[in-house]
Amino acid sequence: MYIVLCALSIVLLFSTAVAGKPTAISVPVATEFLGYDGNWSPVSIRVGSPPQWVDVLVSTRNQETWVVGPGGCDGTVICRTKRGGLFQRNESSTWHDQGYYNLGLDLQLGFTGNGDYGLDTISLDEQVSVPSQIIGVINSTDYWNGFLGLGVEPTNFTTVNQLTFLSSMVENQSLIPSHSYGYTAGAYYRGKTVPSSLTVGGYDQNRFIPHDISFELNPAQDPVVALNSISVTATPLPASNKSTDWSTNPLPLFASFGTADVGLYTIDSSTSYLWLPETVCENFESALGLTYDDELQLYTFGPNATQHDVLVNWNMTFKFIIADLPGSTKTVTISLPYAAFDLQLSYPFPGLNATASSTATNYFPLRKAANGTQYTIGRAFLQESYLMVDYERNNFSVYQAVFDNNALNNVNLVDISRPRNSTFTGPKLEGSTLGKPTLIGIIIGAVVLLATILALWFYCLRGRKFRNVGRELGGKRRGKFSKKRGFVVEIGGSTQFATEMPGGQEVVELPGAPPIELQGSPVEVSVYGAAYHESSNELPTRMSYIGKGPVGLESRTIPPQVFELDYTPANCAKSPSEYSPDGLGPQGAVSSIRISTVSSQFPSPRPSPLTPDNKVSPIATTARMDGQIYRNDDRGVRSAEQGVDVRKWPTPSSYLTDSVEVRRSEGVQVNPRRFSWE
Known about the structure:
about 20% strand; Cathepsin D, subunit A, domain 1; 32 strands; alpha+beta; 7 helices; transmembrane; Aspartic peptidase domain; eight-stranded mixed β-sheet
């Protein structure tokens, strides 16, 4: 029993050790690139039960997950494909509706829209599944693709804070070791296209050039940097460059020292563009021969379409020097080729005069920032850089990205551990949730180990019982190699004191040959011997029923003085089995041993709570109540103006068509903007 208990303890400790080590996880990426303002590499997630596959972009500033709903398309396959797939919330058994709310992302950049919110399950694969996640279903073209938010700022619909996807993976599911991630946007123009890379709970060491410089997150937990300078170099400077402003090589496009454009820039992959001060945009315009389109609010090449081909041949490299604070000498330089900014607009981009069959329009991803709250470095920058964020240490780093055509398989994930003084809730090791295959493997291994130990235990116990069977009357123990008992040969007797048959294991039958005896003298006849001779049934001779004895010393024939025993059929009627020396029944058989089965039951992992406790990380909180959103932002953007009441929301001009009726909590209908792929 002691052995069994030890085995159970080993198995339980082994399973706990396996279940209790959260590790960095690489989020699956899609093979197709998406976007109507460029080619962007999305990640693939599964939403709902049963899971529905959708491809979404990564948002480094949003804390929610947004997916495109059926109202976001005109019913054509091409629309559904270009938007990364559609999520049918009415087909999910785990959807818990929360109502319609405004989409509170990048309001300072002028983006608007609303979504049908609910709670549902997000899965990355068969083993990683996170329930009760905030899902916003988009039924318009305000945002063309959905997002997987990496923020850690909790959201609430009533009075209960809902943990974000990243926080839930740490605090509720214990899947990753810390609140951290590493991300690069991928590059469509590199090699045979290089996909994005998103690692939660760590980073992929093969996707960047390391250094030891890190910056601090702002109070809203956003990665914010100071942009010290931007310059462009053409190698070599071509003669076709007719720009009068290209006086030096490299050419400065922005220098924050001694200018009024000093500020902090948020690295935000939710937007594709560089949101720079207007004076900086004008420097780009004059150096590259760009044209500002008021309708698109972006820079294109206008009527001079050949200028695009000229820039492609210039072999330009843009250098961004960023720092933690303006003027800091602790800087990081990120280089980007012109190909990173050589993007295209396609139908149905808002304001673009095109149809589904129109040729894409070349543009430069640069937008004019109205004020410091709009200073943003978007997704185009993250094509050539790798962003690593560690919320628990309140810092982040930006690295030069590395490209590998086999980037999907050539990965080297490294965990980001928790600091001892972290204010965030860590993984619950004792309640780790394992995937079904892992649990099955542990259970099978435990059962096999237990069965082996029990088999050995019963085998040893059975052997001991067999060795204890042969105990004799006198208390002597007969072992497997005990000496056999010899024959009992008695002198004359009577029917009252009967002469016994041989008591050894050998069975001696009548008649038998005479034993070989030693020489001896005549024996006096006793009283019983005299009576013996008076019996009417005499044996002809003693030699007639005594078996042969062993051949040994010199022998002689038994003299006639030896008296003979009576013989009657009754005396020989007993079968040899009745004279079993050990009294074990017929044939000396041993009774069978009854073996009972032993079963073991292992405790299943404790289910993770669906509702987090009241301990919330000391960070700002976005509240969604009564159709409003309040965000505690370092830029002071927290007025109810940006959290517009859905019931008073103006009809977005960019809604989809076919008179799609968008359901709201108050029953308000939205008339989508009309477009068609046919």
